[in-house]
Design a protein that fits this description.
By secondary structure, this protein is mainly alpha-helical. Among the domains are: 55 residues; 56 residues, no CATH class. The protein is built from 4 helices and 3 strands, in the order ααβββαα. It has a 3-stranded antiparallel beta sheet, with no helix packed on it. The termini are far apart.
C-alpha cells in the first residue's frame, strides 16, 4: 500500500463530540483547625446527651420493674387466697379471764360473738388478775365494805403454843420446810 493508502489514526476529540457530566464522588478531605474544634464540641455534647438518655432509661426501667414486681406480689396473694379459700384479717375480740374456769381465758369475736379460742392464762395474766383483785379488795376496805376481823385483847382462849410471826407466815406459804 502506498502512503496515500494509509489512514492516519483519528483522535477521540476529532471523531466524537465532547461530552461532560457532573457527578458526586466520595474522596478524602482533611479538616481545618476550626472544623476539628467544632467536631470536639459536638462529640462532647452528644456524649453528655447519651448519658442523660441512658440514665432516664434506667429510671424508667426501674419504675416499670417496681410496677411489675408489685403486680406479681398482688397476683401471688390473690392466687394463694383463691387456692386456700381463706385469709387472715384483724377482728376486735373480747378476752374473758378465768372463764370457763379459773386459770383459763376465753376469746370471742365482738362482731359475731363466735368463740375463737379457750386457752390457759399466761403467768403474767394470772399475776395481773391477782393484782387487780388485790386493788379491788383494798378499795373496798378503804370504803368500809370489808372489815378485817379484830382480835380481842385478853381473850379467854389463849394459845398454849404461841408462834412467832415468821412461823405463822411460813405455815401459810406453800413452800415445804427445809431442815
Amino acid at each position: 500500500m502506498s502512503e496515500q493508502d494509509t489512514i492516519p489514526a483519528a483522535k477521540a476529540e476529532d471523531v466524537l463530540p465532547e461530552k461532560k457530566e457532573k457527578i458526586t464522588k466520595t474522596l478524602k478531605y482533611e479538616f481545618t483547625t476550626d472544623e476539628m474544634l467544632q467536631l470536639g464540641k459536638d462529640l462532647g455534647g452528644h456524649a453528655i446527651k447519651k448519658s442523660q438518655v441512658e440514665s432516664d432509661k434506667k429510671k424508667v426501667v426501674a419504675d416499670f420493674k417496681a410496677q411489675t414486681d408489685e403486680l406479681d406480689a398482688k397476683i401471688q396473694r390473690c392466687s394463694n387466697s383463691l387456692q386456700s379459700g381463706f385469709t387472715f384479717r384483724d377482728f376486735e375480740c373480747t378476752v374473758t379471764f378465768h372463764s370457763p374456769k379459773i386459770g383459763m381465758k376465753t376469746i370471742h369475736r365482738d362482731d359475731t360473738m363466735e368463740l375463737v379460742k379457750e386457752e390457759k392464762m399466761t403467768q403474767q395474766e394470772c399475776q395481773e388478775q391477782l393484782g387487780l383483785q388485790e386493788d379491788i379488795l383494798e378499795e373496798q376496805k378503804d370504803e368500809g365494805f370489808l372489815n378485817e376481823p379484830e382480835q380481842e385483847q385478853g381473850s379467854d382462849t389463849e394459845n398454849d403454843d404461841p408462834k412467832t410471826e415468821a412461823e405463822v407466815e411460813k405455815e401459810e406459804s406453800d413452800e415445804p420446810e427445809v431442815a
